[in-house]
Design goal:
The complex is a heterodimer of chains A (318) and B (137). Chain A has 318 residues and is of the alpha+beta class. Chain A contains 10 helices and 18 strands. Chain A starts with a strand and ends in an 8-residue tail after the last helix. Chain B is mainly β and 137 residues long. Chain B has one domain. In chain B, the strands form 3 sheets. A 4-stranded mixed beta sheet of chain B has the order 6-7-9-8, with no helix packed on it. In chain B, strands 2-3 form a two-stranded antiparallel sheet. A two-stranded antiparallel ribbon of chain B has the order 4-5. In chain B, strand 4 and strand 5 form a beta hairpin. The two termini of chain B are 31 Å apart.
Chain lengths: 318, 137
């Protein structure tokens, strides 16, 4: 039985489930929103244990789970009957309850949360990437405005700024997206002379294209992403990227696989930028990166490959 | 007195105006299949998306059966969001992308839904308004 850990809004899970139903493959789904209201029955004994949940009328027998597709981390909704002052405490209890009741890394996870969390740290990636033969853009993270200005000058003003964690910023009832954007003189002049919050600047790659390489197990899905040359981040609303399949060179394949193996992952979506002289720069690895939009756009076959991978026996995938 | 700074990385961040938009009441989550379905027909929303959907001039959506994987849907598509996560976009030819409203969710591979149907009442025509309430991890 495959368990999909996600939330209700994960439409990519629907996209996969539709196919599972068609193929008659057993699955169940655990959404963050539902776990606060789940009926829980756990029994631990020296002789063994039983672990089951019931959400609405659906029973999930944890002991029957043979593989897990980890899409999104748990973010439980605390039941409304819990006092407001106890909500934060209850939140922690629910997190540990559900993370604790699930099978360990010996089960076939795609991929195991602790490994995903580590792999998702962009700075970790920058540290590790050169050891696997990836070229990375010069990058500086600093709290010192003078140092950032020096870096900017050293790069002849060809510098971008990007978040260290993620681009989504929610503030009360307002949400914003911080894309990778070009830094201009004025912006740097405006910042305080004093210590500032840690800021990541990276030398801008004058690129001819981006690459998105999605790996499922040992299968590669290479996509070139073409935008106009003035676009820094192809995810910007105005970018209008064009997508084209390409065959990933064996050299690059091996590096990607080794990188994934280092982090203990069997799935990953790599982002690269190709400069005008053909140099391929590693930008980042998305450990649970999305793929469905490309699958639909180019008919890549990621969905059946992923399903095949999810239903592999755990021992084959270690 | 404390002096507050704007984070440098957030300079120029773009608004996601519909981030907190409420869900489409025409859809419901089916716990037995774990799929979103239309309340009236029971058809999984995703199946509809995988078929060819054409928007009429009146803004009504018509579903035309097509072989999955052969023709991509014209009405809906997955696109990439700012953070590598899926966005489901309802697009119509000629719609100015700057009109696009965007909603998205979490940090670990979340789904974002974008609507670009211009000048229409979203509560009436939003067939993929799957984002319910959003979370930030």
């Amino acid at each position: 039985m495959l368990l999909i850990i996600t939330d209700r809004n994960d439409f990519t899970a629907d996209y996969v489930i539709a196919f599972l139903i068609e193929k008659g493959l057993p699955y169940t789904r655990l959404n963050s929103e539902d776990i606060g209201d789940a009926d829980v029955h756990l029994l631990f004994k020296s002789s063994g244990n039983s672990r089951s949940l019931r959400i609405v009328d659906v029973k999930i027998d944890i002991n029957a789970i043979t593989s897990i597709w980890y899409r999104r981390r748990f973010f439980p909704k605390v039941p409304s009957f819990v006092r407001r002052t106890d909500q934060e405490f209850a939140f922690g209890e629910l997190i540990h309850l559900f993370e604790g009741l699930l099978p360990g890394p010996e089960t076939h996870w795609v991929d195991y949360p602790a490994k995903v969390w580590r792999a998702e740290r962009k700075l970790q990636q920058l540290v590790v990437a050169p050891h696997f033969g990836f070229k990375i853009p010069d990058t500086q993270v600093s709290t010192d405005p003078i140092s950032l200005r020096q870096f900017y000058k050293k790069c002849d003003g060809e510098v971008v700024c990007k978040p260290i964690f993620r681009g989504l910023h929610v503030q009360g009832k307002e949400a914003k997206a911080a894309y990778t954007h070009k830094v201009c003189d004025l912006e740097l002049d405006e910042i305080s002379e004093n210590k500032i919050f840690p800021t990541l600047l990276q030398k801008r790659i004058r690129k001819i294209k981006d690459l998105r390489i999605t790996i499922v197990g040992q299968q590669f899905f290479g996509v070139e992403i073409l935008t106009s040359t003035d676009i820094i981040d192809w995810r910007e609303p105005d970018a209008s990227p064009n997508y084209r399949c390409f065959d990933v060179h064996s050299n690059l394949m091996n590096r990607c696989l080794a990188f994934l193996k280092y982090f203990g992952l069997s799935y990953g979506a790599f982002d690269f930028a190709v400069s005008k002289n053909g140099t391929v720069f590693f930008l980042e690895l998305n450990a649970v990166g999305e793929w469905a939009w490309l699958d639909r756009e180019l008919n890549l076959g990621i969905r059946p490959t992923l399903i095949q991978h999810l239903y592999k026996k755990s021992e084959e995938c270690v | 007195m404390a002096v507050f700074q704007q984070l440098f990385v957030l300079k120029g961040a773009l608004n996601l105006p519909d981030y907190f938009k409420k869900p489409d009441i025409k859809q419901t989550y089916d716990y037995s299949s774990h799929l979103w379905r239309w309340r009236d027909t029971g058809i999984p929303v995703v199946l509809e998306m995988l078929h060819k959907i054409k928007s009429t001039k009146q803004g009504e959506n018509k579903i035309e059966a097509s072989a999955d994987g052969i023709e991509k849907p014209e009405g809906f598509s997955f696109i990439a969001s700012p953070y590598g996560e899926t966005i489901i976009t309802k697009t119509s030819e000629g719609i100015d992308q700057s009109e696009t409203s965007c909603m998205q969710a979490s940090s670990y591979g979340e789904t974002t839904i974008t609507e670009t149907e211009e000048g229409e009442d979203a509560t009436e025509v939003s067939t993929l308004n799957l984002i319910k309430y959003f979370k930030c991890y």
